From TrEMBL:
Belongs to the glutaredoxin family. This is Glutaredoxin. Keywords: Cytoplasm, Disulfide bond, Electron transport, Redox-active center, Transport. Residues 4-64 form the Glutaredoxin domain. Has a glutathione-disulfide oxidoreductase activity in the presence of NADPH and glutathione reductase. Reduces low molecular weight disulfides and proteins.
Amino acid sequence: MSRVEIYTKSFCPFCTRAKQLLDAKGVDYQEYRIDSQPELRAPMIERANGGYTVPQIFINDQHIGGCDEMIALETQGTLDKLLAA
């Protein structure tokens, strides 16, 4: 199974929605909460090529984007392929 990382903040509805999708698929993921670990914000922005909103999602070190982008991958039927890689 793929390595999934997600940068989040508390009380972020998009973060919650993204995590719910991953949970529904039974995917284990590493969550980085940048509101409780602000030192992770700069590395997140660098990894996300300037993306500063949350969530920022990575699958096998590939930047997927945010919640909307992950849901688009699910709708297109390509998310499972990325997760299985």
